[in-house]
Design a protein that fits this description.
Layout (H helix, E strand, L loop, with lengths): L2 E7 L6 H16 L4 E8 L5 E7 L2 H8 L2 H10 L8 E5 L8
Helix pairs in contact: 1-3
């Protein structure tokens, strides 16, 4: 079953560019993971960043979280955030597949 992840990041004032740089380093390697289907980065008008992620199953999510690039990003980003990363696992109710 597809796993949908929505993660939000609120940078400390003045750290927006640093947070964006770290998050952008994740897109290529994560999109290359066998179990990843979507890994899209967004920014809202308030300066927060959001990742929309789709994985083929929970095993793919666990594999993602065990990669060197995931561990490096988690270690680098924590001190740049005003609050902890907000991660939500979503259950699709009316989702277009394709």
């Amino acid at each position: 079953m597809t796993v949908t992840v929505f993660a939000s990041f609120s940078p400390k004032p003045g750290k927006e560019a640093d947070v964006e740089k770290i998050l952008r380093t994740m897109t290529g390697p994560t999109r290359s993971e066998l179990g990843n289907r979507v890994y899209d980065l967004y920014k809202d008008a308030q300066g927060a960043f959001h990742l929309f992620e789709l994985y083929v199953d929970q095993s793919a999510v666990e594999a993602h979280r065990s990669t060197a690039h995931y561990k490096a990003y988690r270690a680098a980003i924590a001190d740049l955030l005003a609050e902890p990363i907000a991660v939500k696992i979503l259950t699709g109710l009316d989702v277009r597949s394709g």
